[in-house]
Structures are given as structure tokens and as C-alpha cells.
Amino acid sequence: MEIDHYDPVVLDHKAMVAEWMRDPEFKTAYGALDEPFRLFDALFEARRKAGMTQGQVAERMGSSTPSVARLKSGGGRARHSPSIATLRRYAEAVGCRLEIRLVPNA
């Protein structure tokens, strides 16, 4: 079978999420992920600012690249939640310090 024309699907992530947010069940589930995603975003941003690859962070941590990659890919699931010691080593590896705070609910 020969395809004579290809129209790629353009995905606009913000528009896609906005559409899904109309579903109350999706909105609740998505909101529950906010906290873990903030952590993963902070890990990524700190590594980016340090100008480091996951491999370089892993080397400084005395760990493996797949272990560092799993820190961001855990998706908030308890079995993949990093320990405070691991987060501290990551922070030190990227030139940061770990700070944990309790914030009152709004």
C-alpha cells in the first residue's frame, strides 16, 4: 500500500490538557499529580541550570544514569518515590541544597 499524502497530527499539549480538564474525573486525577510533578520539574530545572546530563549527575551522586532517570519517571508512585538521602545527593550533585517545607493548605 502506498501513501501519497501525509498529514501529521499537530499536538498542542496545552489545548489537549484544557480539553481533558473539562472531565471532572480527569481534573481530580490531574490535580493529584501536581505535587510530584513540581518535584520532578525542580529536579529537571536544577540539572538544566547546572548544565549537566543525567549521566554527569549520576556520576557525581555515585549512582547510575538509569537510577537518576527514574527519579523523574516515577510519576509520584510510592514505590518509586526517592528518599530524602537520594534527593540530598542529587541536590549536591547539581550545586544545590535540599530544602523541605510544610506549607499550609490554602
Secondary structure: elements and pairs:
Blueprint: H1 13-20, H2 24-32, H3 34-50, H4 54-61, H5 65-73, H6 84-93
Number of strands: 0
> CATH superfamily membership of the domain at 34-99, which one?
lambda repressor-like DNA-binding domains
Q: How does the major sheet shape up?
A: none
Helical percentage: 55-70%
Q: What is the CATH architecture assignment of the domain at 34-99?
A: Orthogonal Bundle
The rounded distance between the terminal residues' Cα atoms is: 58 Å
Counted by DSSP, the helix tally is 6
Secondary-structure element pattern, one letter each: HHHHHH
Average of pLDDT: 84
By oligomeric state, this entry counts as: single chain
> pLDDT below 50 for ≥5 consecutive residues: which ranges?
none
Reported by name, the CATH topology of the domain at 34-99 is 434 Repressor (Amino-terminal Domain)
Shape: flat
Query: Class of the domain at 34-99, according to the CATH hierarchy?
Result: Mainly Alpha
The radius of gyration is 18 Å
Beta-strand fraction estimate: under 5%
> How does the helix and strand content classify structurally?
mainly alpha
Detailed description of the structure:
With 106 residues, this protein is mostly helical. The chain contains six helices and no strands. The longest helix has 17 residues, at 34-50. Helix 4 packs across helix 6. 58% of the residues lie in helices and 0% in strands. The protein has a domain at 34-99: lambda repressor-like DNA-binding domains (434 Repressor (Amino-terminal Domain)). It has helices at residues 13-20, 24-32, 34-50, 54-61, 65-73, 84-93.
